[in-house]
Specification:
single chain; 333 residues; alpha+beta; three-stranded antiparallel β-sheet; two-stranded antiparallel sheet; 12 helices
């Protein structure tokens, strides 16, 4: 029962932190994306993978902020981006892995590409290709329609550029598996290489062709993030955050430190409601005409109400996800 309470406490803490710092996400997101929707999807992803709640708050928020800057949602079903727990120097941090559909989205946004076709090839498929120029270059693929197409043997991508030319890349199994084996998530038998194998094969082929043509800074960032993950080094996503009230909590275990600090501050406020207030002294009366007091900052009050409302909505809609984690039924209270 104690583990259940801890899990809910951590989830509540990160929800509060995300909602209170929503302006950072709003400023990072592209205009066409809804901040509320993006935040809810990110929190749902965390509910589905409680290991993320063991990561440092700054790396978790930094990963969400990185996805916001790329304009990619962290929904596993859409496969645009994934939040991956990663053990770095004794503590868990979050890393971002851009999925196949995320790469597609980023490449299409460049306006340099008209069409992209990516597929995997099975043993029983009819498949042949040849690189060259003009009529000497070709790629044909006829998928096997029987019950057992066999193992995956290759992945390919064909790109038609806005300038009029076309290009394709084919990766045999050995090259795809080399990329997979370099991923820590794959070696840990977790992440999209396990849950979305076909799409990761296609993404590997798409990455290969993206490296050979000029692309946008967002595509370059996605490639760099993956290369750091494959190299087993941290992505330093916490550096994206200008300021969060969690700086002193990095030496504690994940969200536990942040939660304890919030409870401690609340306890001090209840014991001494005047704590932190300066002593009010008699001030000399002003000389000359006086001005009416300025009205309260309505914008700040509106932002606070919006954040509190969002927290309540998130708790009501997402906390149900905690009832089932890793095949275990959890009960609240």
């Amino acid at each position: 029962m104690g583990e259940i309470v801890t899990l809910e406490r951590k989830a509540t803490t990160i929800r509060d932190m995300m909602a209170k710092n929503q302006k950072l996400i709003e400023s990072a997101l592209p205009r066409h994306m809804s901040p509320d929707r993006f935040l809810r999807i990110a929190l749902t992803s965390m509910s589905k993978n409680p290991k993320l709640l063991e990561c440092t708050p700054r790396s978790l928020f930094g990963a969400v902020l990185q996805c916001a800057q790329l304009g990619l949602e962290t929904d596993d079903l859409r496969g645009q981006a994934y939040l991956i727990p990663f053990r770095n120097k004794g503590v868990y941090e979050v890393q971002v892995m851009v999925g196949y559909k995320g790469f597609l989205e980023l490449v299409y946004r460049t306006k340099k590409v008209l069409d992209i076709t990516a597929e995997v090839v099975h043993e029983q498929d009819e498949f042949s290709f040849q690189h060259g120029s003009g009529d000497n270059e070709f790629l044909t693929h006829k998928p096997y329609m029987g019950d057992d197409p066999g193992e995956l043997i290759a992945a390919y991508v064909k790109v038609k550029f806005a300038a009029g030319h076309e290009r394709f890349a084919v990766l045999p199994r050995r090259e795809v598996m080399k990329a997979a084996s370099s991923s820590r998530a794959y070696r840990d038998n977790s992440g999209p290489w396990i849950t979305h194998e076909d799409e990761m094969w296609k993404k590997t082929a798409l990455r290969r062709i993206c490296k050979t043509v000029p692309m946008s800074p967002e595509v370059a960032t996605a490639i760099a993030l993956e290369e750091r993950e494959s190299a087993g080094i941290g992505q330093d996503l916490s550096a994206l955050i200008p300021d969060l009230h969690t700086d002193n909590e990095e030496n504690k275990s994940g969200l536990d430190g942040l939660t304890d600090k919030l409870k401690e501050e609340k306890g001090h406020a209840e014991q001494d409601p005047n704590a932190g207030k300066e002593e009010v002294k008699d001030k000399p009366k002003p000389i000359g005409p006086t001005k009416d007091p300025e009205p309260p900052n309505q914008t700040q009050e509106t932002d606070d109400i919006k954040a509190d409302t969002l927290i309540a909505e998130i708790r009501a809609s997402d906390l149900e996800m905690l009832k089932r984690v890793d095949g275990t039924i959890y009960r609240r209270g």
